[in-house]
C-alpha cells in the first residue's frame, strides 16, 4: 500500500497554536498563503518557505501581514524546528525537505486539514480524476441559488484557510485532489462525492493505480452514519475499491446504466431521476446546462447533494439549467469562418481528453501535448479514428504522441507556442470543424500552469 495511507502516527494530537508555537508553511501559493494567514491569526509563530519563486501578489500579502518568508530555497534550521508543517499539495513526499520532516517525526498536514480545525461549517467534499471542478462549481451554484450561506474552496477559488479566517459560512463545497487528501487525517467530510478513478498522477503513487485509488477513498475517512457517500456505480475502479473497504456513511450511488433507489439513475435514456428520502426529482437531460455523457454524471452527483440538503425541485431545476461552464473546461472561445474553437486546457490527463472528444459532434483538429505523466494514449484510439482529422502537438517533447497516433492520423504537426498551435490548427480546419485544445498533459514545459496555457490559447484565437 502507498505509505500516504500509513501516516496516521504523527497526527494524534493537533497542535493548538497560541503562545508562539512554531508552524511552518511549505509553498507560497494560494493554499500556503491562506494557511499562513489563518495560523498567524490563531497565535502561531509562522514561517513560509518556497523552493521556487513566490508570485508578487502573494509576496505582497505576506509582507503586508508581517509574515516572514523565504523563496528559492528551503533552509533546514528554519523549518525543522517547527511543531507542525503545512505543505502545499504540489510538493511530493519524496522531496528532500519532506523526507527530513518525516525522519524528524514532525507532523506534515494539508491546508484543508489545518483550516478544518477552526470551522464548525458543514463540508461537502468532491473528488475524482475527472469532472471535480465542474461538479464542485455546479454544486456551489445550486446551493447558493437556493439561498444557502455557502463557500467554495479547495482546489478552486480562494483558499479554504483564508475563508475560514475571514468569512462565516455555514457550508463549504470543497474540490479535493488526491494530493490534498494524502495529507488529511482527522478532517471529516459530511457529504463525500467520488466521481471516478482513472489513471492520473501515477508518478506520485509509485505508478500503482491502487495507491492512487487509496488516496481518493480517503475522502470517506472519519465519516459516520449521519454522513453521506455519493459515488458512481458505473465506474469500475470505484466499485473495485469499495469491495475492499467498509463505509460508515450512508451510500448513495448514481448510474446511467442501472436503476438505484435511493440514488440517481437515467430513466428511458432521457430523464435524470434522483430519489433520496426526499420527494423524487426528475429533469430531462436536454434541459441540463451541461451537455455530454460525462456531464450527466456530474449533474447527478450535484443533484443528489441538493436533495440530501432538501432543496426544492423547482430551485434545483432552474440552477441546473442555467449554470455557466467554467473557464478552461470545454469553454467555447470563438467561431471564426465557421470553425469552432474550444479551450479545454484543464484536461491534464488522457481521461479528460477522452471526455472532451466524446462530447464533440463534428470533425476535430486536436491540440495535444505538454508534460507527459506516463500517459497511456490507447484509450483515445477509437475516438481519434472516428473524429480527429489532424493533431497539433503543443509541447517540448512530442515523441509519445507521435508513437501513439502516427499510424492513425494523417497530419501531426509540432508547435512550440499557443499562438503557433492556434494558427496551424486554424489552417488545418475547414468550415464546420472544431479546433479543440485538450492537451491530456500538464503544462509546465511551456506555460506557468493550465490557466496560463488556456488564456494564451484564447488570446491567440482572438488574433486570428
The CATH topology of the largest domain turns out to be UDP-N-acetylmuramoyl-L-alanine:D-glutamate ligase
Structural category is: alpha/beta
Name of the CATH class of the largest domain:
Alpha Beta
The CATH architecture category of the largest domain equals 3-Layer(aba) Sandwich
Give the neighbour order of strands across the main sheet.
7-8-6-9-10-11
Estimate the global geometry from the Cα principal axes: globular
Arithmetic mean of pLDDT: 92
Radius of gyration from the CA trace? 22 Å
Question: Which strand-content bin applies to the residues?
Answer: 15-25%
In CATH, what is the homologous superfamily of the largest domain? Mur-like, catalytic domain
EC number: 6.3.2.9
Pfam family, one: Mur_ligase_C
Region (Disordered): 1-21
Organism: Mucilaginibacter rubeus
Task: Summarize this structure as a short list of keywords or feature phrases.
Rossmann fold; 34% helix; 20 strands; alpha/beta; 3 domains; 464 residues; 6-stranded parallel sheet; UDP-N-acetylmuramoyl-L-alanine:D-glutamate ligase; Protein-Tyrosine Phosphatase, Chain A; single chain; 17 helices; 6-stranded mixed sheet
